[in-house]
Amino acid sequence: MKISEQVQHIIHAIEVGRLSRWLQLLPLAAAVVALAVLYDLSSYRGFNSAEAMDAAQVARNLASGKGYTTDFIRPFSVFLIQKHNHDMHLGEIQMSNTVDFAELDGGHPDLANPPVYPTLLAGLIKLWPPEWKAQTREPFWSEGGRFQRYQPEFHIAIFNQLLLVVVVALTYLLTQKLFGIPEAWLAALMTLGADLLWKFSVSGQSTLLLLVIFLGLAWCLTKIEEIGRGHQPAVRKLFLLAIGAGALTGAGMLTRYSFGWIIVPVVIFLTLFGGVRRPGLAVTAFLTFALLVTPWIIRNLAVSGTLFGTAGYAVVEGTLPAFPGSRLMQSLNPDMTAMYWLRPYLSKFLVNARYILQGDLLRIGGSWVAVLFFGGLLLGLRNIAAQRMRYFTLMCLGVFIVAQSLGKTQLSTISPDTSSENLLALLTPFVVIFGIAFFLTLLNQMNASTPEVRLGVVVLIMTLSCQTFIANLLPPRISPVAYPPYYPPEIQKISGWMRPNELLMSDIPWAVAWYGDHQCVWNTANSEYEFNQFNDYVKNVSGLYLTLNTLDQKLFTECLQGGVDSWGNFVLKTVAANQIPPQFPLKVAPYGLLSGLFLTDRQRWETE
Length: 608
Fold this sequence. Notes:
Blueprint: H1 3-15, H2 18-42, H3 50-63, E1 69-70, E2 72-73, H4 75-88, E3 108-109, H5 116-127, E4 142-143, E5 146-147, H6 151-178, H7 181-192, H8 195-203, H9 207-228, H10 235-253, H11 263-273, H12 278-304, H13 343-358, H14 367-376, H15 384-407, H16 411-414, H17 428-446, H18 451-465, H19 467-473, H20 488-496, E6 503-506, H21 509-515, E7 520-522, H22 529-537, E8 541-546, H23 548-551, H24 555-560, H25 567-576, E9 597-600
Helix pairs in contact: 3-5, 3-21, 6-7, 6-8, 6-9, 7-17, 9-10, 9-11, 10-12, 11-12, 11-15, 13-15, 14-17
């Protein structure tokens, strides 16, 4: 082919051929990138949740060849692993300082995080290595000699914002299949303007990855339903899609354990709407799901004797009066008899479900979209596929309400907006899709006098639905530092004082593990009995770092009434009365810390 003909061929492809469609997307892609840059400059905030830091430090251990281990040590994890190792070595010496039953001298197995998200982050770290030291002089990462942004977190935020773009694209494709192109564009734009999803994009959570999996699952189910309604359905394709649905559900569970309950709506949907092969499709999806998650469950059983590690006890956390707050995870020898009582679970469910029904439910996807969605439940849909996917959405909503009510822990208190326990956030695209369908039905009944009026109404609804996101793009700019209590330079300084094999204890151990890259145990349930038991029989604690999380506790209810062995009372005596308890082994403190209390066994810093 001559050069002139090749040029002509390229020009034709650009103008009317395959390339024309991609070139039309360039302005849209540029607009999305500009939006992301504007958001990161105005509303970016460093990690503010324990789960994000926990998953990230596990990913770093994976990337550095330490295996699936954690530097964030939960006393309850130590309890599970010790108990399992003791049971596995019956007849041998049970209590010995030379036997590391807690597995703290080497890498401590992680029992909290399912493997998919940390593994992806480990790959990101390998492909795009960040600077691990917190910068106080480099532009953008600092300002005026003060730390502003932590580079590894910013890399993870960019990765999650790319996943957000994928979520928007999948929302467009799913809406187009169910309703049409106008509805698809509006749903995609409204999903892109969902403030909660942008918050998740910079939070370091796995929510956006889970949304990609969830939307992929919905696409598989939609295709199965469509093919199953045909006169001569392609059986091979149906079963391949059922395998895909089961695999995506399993991948979702290995991203977040609570997502595994979605297998119930998946099986019900396939049983009802899978066509003539529906029983076989349901069984195929379930077996694929089970085969995918079984190896990880076997790993957990081999390491701790439990199916899901510490994460499997989320339903026990927060039950009263035995395990309020995070007491279970901070307990080295918990009394587990209370976990067999039914009443605490019923009480926990009723209390949390009431908050969901009265508040969280009306904020899915933004308040205006949620109103349209629930109003649209009364709307009869002509499209059979849309009807059936709405049934699937409602089944998922019911499952998520139950799972979120029973699985709520102290993590939701630490980061209420962007907690991994916020399962309702996963329904944002679905609420948007059906909310938009209802809105356009109402709009068609308005009989708008001119197209301009119709467009004005659409713009008004879009603006109202995305008002929170729009407001966050405007001044004033929020601080990118999640302080209090997290200030990475200080945490790295304290971690640098410790030797690699020495153990820290803190009320923010997830932050010490992430920023300080040092093994740190959560402060035990009390400052006397459990601390001494851990220090004497598990591993010697060489440093104690308490932040404003503990120092800012209420004086009367949490310090004075918290008990003589509470950490609040310990801080009150140590800071206010300048009296470290006589039996406490750590008595040396530095001067000049930005915040918090640091006690250690000896002087580890240079004196001026």
